[in-house]
Protein: Stress up-regulated Nod 19 protein
Organism: Glycine max
Amino acid sequence: MRIISKVMILSLSIIVVLSGTTYSIFLESENHIKSATFVSKSFEVGPGKIASKALYDIEFPKGHIGVKSFDAELVDEDGKSVPLYETYLHHWFAIKYNENITMSRYIEQSHDISKGINYTRNDGACRGFLLPHYWGLGGESRGTSSNLPDPFAVEFGNPTNIPHGFKEKWLFDIMVIDTRGAYSRKGCTECRCDLLNLPKDFYNVTRDINDQPLSLNYKGGLFCCKDNLQCKLRKGFHGPTRKLSLRYKIRWVDWDEHQVPLKFYILDTTDRVRTNGSSTIHDCQAEYTIPRIGHGDSPHVKKANIPMKKGGYLIYGTSHMHTGVVNATLYGQDGRVLCTSTPKYGTGKEAGNERGYLVGMSGCYPKPGSVEIKDGEILTLETRYQNKFRTGAMGFFYIHLAEQLPNILKI
């Protein structure tokens, strides 16, 4: 666990605390595993609108626990699943932070989160504020598993890891794009800058991920999908606004000596690894543009060679990608395939099976102990997209590693 020094998260949204209500539905325990379904605070969208929000202090199981899965989807006011062709779920990320107990009342009343909060991040190596989340997907959420096999879990709420005077809390970083009536659904979901009502001085005042002036060649991505901006609509289209929420289900166990802790790493195919003396710097960019090259069908391939300071046994792996993905593969230093994550595309109209949209990514569950990543091993992440122009493409690989195995599972 590492502290994030900057009050900034991936979507670069203005951090706000939204008003509204949240509720939860507790279910009966299944064997030793507990389960609960929660619904986040609501937010409003209208045709073509971007909603990029940070929802603080979301409901989360209490106590010293081990999380087994975390799944989410977008729902309307009636609790019905919202299809991607109406409102596109670009991403949701669950981020952990510690809040100073003595400042809680002040933060609640003033909405000023600049004081009293320390953000903590996963075990991945991306620098600073980038990709700090522990769970997070996008349009593929409904069809991507996050289940961790017994006896493995991700540990949270350990009082020895929480600074004195602080309380462990969670937030959602979420971005959705309402594409009802959109002039170009595909263009809006890719955050094409020329389809959004950007301010006239946008390129003059916007800084990129490296805090440099945004290039005029930047054609689309997170920097153009700001909260409350409007994507171009078909002439004459009008539609109602509505309130949406993120419904999420968490499965967990009470932590005891029978649980095996997992480390969670996010690897980014845009990671421009470099060295500074004896230090390794992971210069992740989080997104990239895919140019169309010629007229062939060969996919666009992007690679990153990523050294792992600490290794372990691979227990589960999957990827977060966007529509147009062909696959994502993680290789060991010797070229062996550690995991390949493949897409599932929708064929219908119902939520979770939207025609032409990415609705799921496969995961890997190797036999525990059969796939080991050595300390210092250099992994290669390779992501493949269709040979079509695309902005704001992402290529994240998620891996859960066990540093030790229980004796019963050792090979």
The first strand starts at residue 2 and ends at 4. The radius of gyration is 21 Å. Helices lie at 104-110, 185-189, 202-205. The CA atoms of residues 334 and 379 lie 9 Å apart.
